[in-house]
Structure formats: C-alpha cells, structure tokens
C-alpha cells in the first residue's frame, strides 16, 4: 500500500538487509484540465536510493525518500536551465558521441 498524501505517494519500497540502503519511487500527482474541459492527473515519478541508518523508523525512511526525491527534482530543473528538450537531447547526443570517440581511441 502506498504511503503519502493526496499529492504524493511513496511506492515500490525495497530495503536491503546488510546493505545499508533502500530504494523507492516517489510519485507527485498534479491535477490539470485539458482542452475540452477534460480533468486529468499528471504524475511525475522519481526513483531514489537512500542510506538507511541503524534504527531507522518507517516514518524516518519515508521522510528521507521524500526529501531525496525533492532534491533530485531540483537538480533536474537546475540542469535544464531554461533550455528546450531538443537542446538537452542534442547535448546528450554530443556527449555520447564524444565518449564513443574516446573509447575508440583507446
């Protein structure tokens, strides 16, 4: 059963015994109205991993998952820095091409 409020949930929680870490998916839901007065919900999902301190509580883990997801969203927005999707995809393609060239050169 997901944990959360009306506007977010935490799902797919996995704790690793002995590994000291866990991961989960934090889902943020946003209501919207499309043309034609169609009500929809948009969901932004962020998969996160956290370190699990000894003696952590469920509430503490959920707070850590939420905080990590918010941090990751902030980082994603900062990285986009007002650029278009096409600009970001072109930059990613150029980086991948450069990496392939370096691998080919040895």
Kindly summarize this structure in a few lines:
The protein is α+β, with helices and mostly antiparallel strands and 106 residues long. The chain is built from two helices and four strands. Helix content is 42%, strand content 38%.
What are the main properties of this structure?
106 residues, alpha+beta, 4-stranded antiparallel beta sheet, flat
Radius of gyration over all CA atoms, rounded: 19 Å
Shape: flat
As laid out across the biggest beta sheet, the strand order is 1-2-3-4
- Biggest sheet descriptor: 4 strands, antiparallel
Mean of all residue-level pLDDT scores: 87
Secondary-structure element order, as H and E?
Answer: EEEEHH
Distance between the termini: 50 Å
- Helix percent reads 40-55%
Topology record:
Elements: E1 3-5, E2 8-16, E3 21-34, E4 38-51, H1 58-80, H2 85-105
Antiparallel strand pairs: 1-2, 2-3, 3-4
Structural commentary:
The model has no long low-confidence stretch (mean pLDDT 87). The N and C termini lie far apart (50 Å). It contains 2 helices and 4 strands; from the N terminus they run ββββαα. Helix content is 42%, strand content 38%. The protein is an alpha+beta fold and 106 residues long. Strands 1-2-3-4 form a 4-stranded antiparallel sheet. It is flat, with a radius of gyration of 19 Å.
């Amino acid at each position: 059963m997901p944990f959360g409020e009306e506007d977010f949930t935490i799902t797919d929680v996995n704790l690793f015994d002995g590994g000291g870490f866990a991961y989960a998916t934090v889902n943020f839901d946003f209501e919207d109205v499309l043309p034609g007065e169609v009500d929809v919900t948009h969901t932004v999902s962020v998969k996160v991993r956290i370190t699990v301190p000894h003696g952590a509580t469920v509430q503490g883990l959920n707070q850590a998952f939420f905080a990590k997801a918010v941090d990751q969203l902030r980082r994603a927005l900062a990285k986009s820095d007002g650029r278009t999707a096409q600009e970001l995809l072109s930059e990613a393609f150029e980086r991948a091409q450069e990496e392939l060239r370096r691998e080919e050169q040895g």
